[in-house]
Amino acid sequence: MLASRRRLRVITTAVALSCSVAGLSACGSRADSGSSASSGSGGSAAAAPAGSAAASTDTGSSAASSGGSSAAASTGSDASGSAAAGGTTADYKTGLKIAFLPKQVNNPYFTVADGGGKAAVAELKGTYKETGPSDASASSQVSYINTLSQQGENVIATSANDPNAICGALKQAKSAGAKIVTYDSDTTPSCRDVFINQATPQGLADVEIKMMSDEIGGKGKIAILSATPNATNQNAWIALMKADLKKPENSGMQLVTVAYGNDDDQTSFQKTQGLLQSYPDLKGIISPTTVGIAAAARYLSGSKYKGKVQLTGLGTPNQMRQFVKDGTVKEFALWDPAQLGYLAAYAGAALASGTITGKQGESFSAGKLGSRTIGADGVVILGPPTVFQASNIDQFKF
Amino acid sequence: MAPDRTGTLRRSLLTWDVAVVVVLAVVIAVASGSVDSFASQRNWGFLLLDLVPIALIALPMTLVVITGEIDLSVASTLGLVSAAAGKMWADTTLPLTLIVVLCVLLGALLGAVNGVFVTRFGLPSLAVTIGTLALYRGLAFVVLGDRAVADFPTGWTDGAVGFLPGTRIPWVVLPLLALVLVFALVLHATPVGRALYAMGNSTDAATFAGIDVARTKMWLYVVIGAVSGVAGVFWTFRYASARADNGNGLELQVVAGVLLGGVSIFGGRGGLLGVVAGVLLLGTLRNALQLDNVSADALTVVTGGLLIVSVLLPNAAAWLRSTTAQRSRRAGANPVTPASSANPA
C-alpha cells in the first residue's frame, strides 16, 4: 500500500512537472494536483517491483554520475555532455553551504533530484543539506526558507509549492546573502536568481518524433494518445509535434488521429484498444503522458500487436521498466531528475562564487553536464530529455 | 471528593501554568546556548510571524475549550476566508478594505453555523466541527479551485510582514498583544469569564445559576469564527497568496498549544497565561529543532508527543493528588466508601 502510494506520488509529480514545463504555474505548483492522474495509477502499480519506487539518495547520486554521459550517448545531440566529463571545478569556491528544499521530503522524485544535487556538492567540496516540509503545502516551505537563511546557507535550491507564497521569504533570504536557485517548479522570476528548467516543449516534441521515426523507419501511420483535450501542456507539445511532422525528413509519417485517455489508466487502456481496431495498419503510438504510456504499454504487452506496433512518449523508468525488458517498448523519454538537482547545485555554486549573476547570456560550467548558458528571465535549460532504453534503464530508479 | 476539588485544581492549575512558563524559559535558554543563530533578532522576527495566526486563534479557542466544547473547523474557516478573499479580489472590483471586512464577517458567519448546530440542535461540537472542517475546506476548493490569487497590492502584502521601526519585531505582534489583554480580562476579570468556567464544570449548575449557556456558546462560536477570519486575511497577505489549501492542519497546532498551556480538554480549567506560554513553547521548540536540522517528520513526532504529555500529566497529577488525599483521609479517620477502597494505588 505504502509503496503504491509512493509510486502514485511519482506519477502525479511527473504530471505536475509536465504542467510546469508548459509554464502553467497553477497546474504544476502542487505536487498532489494531478487528481485525475491518481485515479489511473492503480493499474500501472503493477508495472514496477514494489521496492524500486523508494529510491534512496545513494541510487540517486549514482544515477547522476552516470546520467550525464548516457544521455549524451543515447540522444546523440548533447555533444558537450561527455566531452566535459570531470570538467573544471576550479572556478568555484570550496566550502559553500548548499541546501536543497524540495516541495516535500520523502517524495521519491525529489529524493532522486536532491541526490543529484548531493553528488554535485560533493564534487564542489561544499556542504550539502536537504530539508523541507513533510506536506507539499504552499506556506510550510516558508519557515524552512527562513531557517536556511538564518543558518547562513550560501545557496538555497528550492522547488516552489506556490510561485508567490514563498516569494517574500526568498527575497529576505536573498538580502541576507543567500543565492536562490529554483528547480522543477519556478517562482516569480524576481524572487530567485536562476531557474533550472527540466525541458522545453520543443525539446520534448523533437525527441518524441525522433524516437518514433527511428522505430518505424520514418514511414507509416501514427497516432497520439494524450491526456485531456484541454490540457495546455499536452496541446502545446502536440502542436509542436505536428509542426515537426511537416518537415521533409518526416514526410513519410502520417498522424491519423489524437485520442484522449484523460490521464486515467482505464480510459487510456481502452483508447489504445480502440486505436488499434480503428486503424489496423497503425505503425506507432506516441503518448506524451506518463499515465497514458503506461496504460498503452500494458495493453500492447498482452496483445498480438506486441513488438509490431511501436509505442513511445514520456514515462518514468519505474513504470516502464517491465515493458522495455519484455520488448513492448523500445525507448521512451523524460528528463532525469538527478541531472536536474546536479545542475541546480552547480548553478548555485556559480552564483555564490560570483562566476555568474543570473543575467541572460552568462555561462557556467556544470561538471559532467558541460557548460550551460542562462537564457531569458534567468532560465537555464537542463538539455534534451534523457532517452531510456533496455541498455540504460536500470541506472534510473524513479 | 467534591468539596475538595476546587482547591486541588486551583493548585494544580497554578503549578501547570508556571511549569509551562519555566519549561519555555529553559528551552529558550538551552536553544540560545546550543543552537546556532537561534537567539538573533531576525530569528525571533520569523518565529513570531509564524506564530501569529496560531496564537490569534488560540485565544478564542481557549474560551471555547474552557466551556467544554471544541472547534476543529478553524483552519478550514481560515482557508475558506482566504479563498473568498482571493475570489473577490480577482473576479470583482470591490475595494480591498471592503473585502477584508467582508472576510471577517464571513468568518463570523461560518462560526455562527457551528454555533447553531451545537447550541440549537444540541449536537456534540467535536462531531459538528469535524464535519465543518471538511465542509469548509471543500467549499474553499469550490470557490477558488486549484488556482492561487497573488496579485494583491504590495503595500498590503509587505505591510503584513512589516517590522516595528528600528527592530525586527513584526508590528502585528502589537494588535495581537492587545487582543491577548482583552481576552485575558474577559476570561479572568469579568462575570462572563466566570460563567465560562462554570459552564465547563457543569452545564446544569451554570444554567441554575442563571447563565444562558446556549447564548454564550453561540457568541463564542461567532467570535472564534471571526478571529479565524482575521487570521485568514492575515495569512493571505503574509504569504501574498490566496489559496484554498491555506492553513491546512493548523487546527492541530492551535489545539496543541491550548492543551499544552494547561487548558483541560474536559473544560472548566486553564488560563490565558498558560496558553500564550504553550503556543510560544511549541513554536520555539519547533524553530530550535528546525535550526538544529531535525527532520520534518521528527518535528511532527515532537508535537504529537507534547500533546499527549499535556493531556496526560495534569490528569495524572490530579489523580495522584486525589488518591493521596483519600489515602491520608483513610489513614486518619477510617470509614471510606467501598468504591474508592476497591481501587488501591
UniProtKB/TrEMBL annotation, chain A:
Return the GO cellular component terms, semicolon-separated: outer membrane-bounded periplasmic space
Signal peptide position in this chain?
1-31
Does the record's keyword annotation contain Transferase?
A: no
Q: Give the matching Gene3D superfamilies.
A: 3.40.50.2300
Region span, Disordered: 38-85
Gene Ontology biological process:
rhamnose transmembrane transport
The alphabetized UniProt keywords are:
Signal
Q: Which NCBIfam families match?
A: RhaS (TIGR02637)
GO MF terms held by the record:
carbohydrate binding
Query: What is the annotated localization of this protein?
Result: Cell envelope
Q: What is this protein called?
A: Monosaccharide ABC transporter substrate-binding protein (CUT2 family)
Give all residue intervals belonging to the Periplasmic binding protein domain.
98-354
UniProtKB/TrEMBL annotation, chain B:
Annotated compartments: Cell membrane
Keywords from the UniProt entry? Cell inner membrane, Cell membrane, Membrane, Transmembrane, Transmembrane helix, Transport
Positions of transmembrane segments:
12-32, 44-65, 96-119, 126-149, 169-189, 218-237, 257-282, 294-313
Per its record, what are the GO molecular function terms?
Answer: transmembrane transporter activity
Q: Name one Pfam family in it.
A: BPD_transp_2
Q: Which GO terms describe its cellular component?
A: plasma membrane
Q: How does it sit in the membrane?
A: Multi-pass membrane protein
CDD domains for this protein: TM_PBP1_transp_AraH_like
PANTHER family for this protein: ABC TRANSPORTER PERMEASE PROTEIN YPHD-RELATED-RELATED, AUTOINDUCER 2 IMPORT SYSTEM PERMEASE PROTEIN LSRD
| Listed name of the protein | Autoinducer 2 import system permease protein LsrD
Protein species of origin: Motilibacter rhizosphaerae
Lineage of the species this protein comes from: Bacteria, Bacillati, Actinomycetota, Actinomycetes, Motilibacterales
